[in-house]
Hints:
This protein is mostly helical. It has seven helices and two strands, in the order H-H-H-H-H-H-E-E-H. The longest helix is centred in the C-terminal third of the chain and has 25 residues, at 151-175.
Amino acid sequence: xxxxxxxxxxxxxxxxxxxxxxxxxxxxxxxxxxxxxxxxxxxxxxxxxxxxxxxxxxxxxxxxxxxxxxxxxxxxxxxxxxxxxxxxxxxxxxxxxxxxxxxxxxxxxxxxxxxxxxxxxxxxxxxxxxxxxxxxxxxxxxxxxxxxxxxxxxxxxxxxxxxxxxxxxxxxxxxxxxxxx
Length: 181
């Protein structure tokens, strides 16, 4: 029996933790620390035609996915720092769909974002490793969702986000029989 991968959510939808006890903080930090290397490996042998292939019909191209990860994770890193330095700060949402349509996301070489992801994740992992369990209970207010979000929730989300978008690329490579490294 063949199982079909949901191309929109190849690892499944994010399951929000209900409490900090449901979050394995070291495992999530490890996922975040490993993303830059895994993402570089997944994209290094791809040519421009492959980078400009959408991972699904109506979806972003591999190039846009890589640039989106950089945009999203820079925003998340800043949100973590804001939550640690202010009391439940209101963060600034951004329109990821619009950002993915800018020329830099549609045509820039992916090494720019790969380097940015490597740098921001390097700093982010050091920062995350310095936080206590109580620190992960701190929050920021997301005006789009109209609620406060804890850092343990955000950590679990961005661990999932890392694996989610990496799977978009690796599943596309498998479907198209592109060389897997």
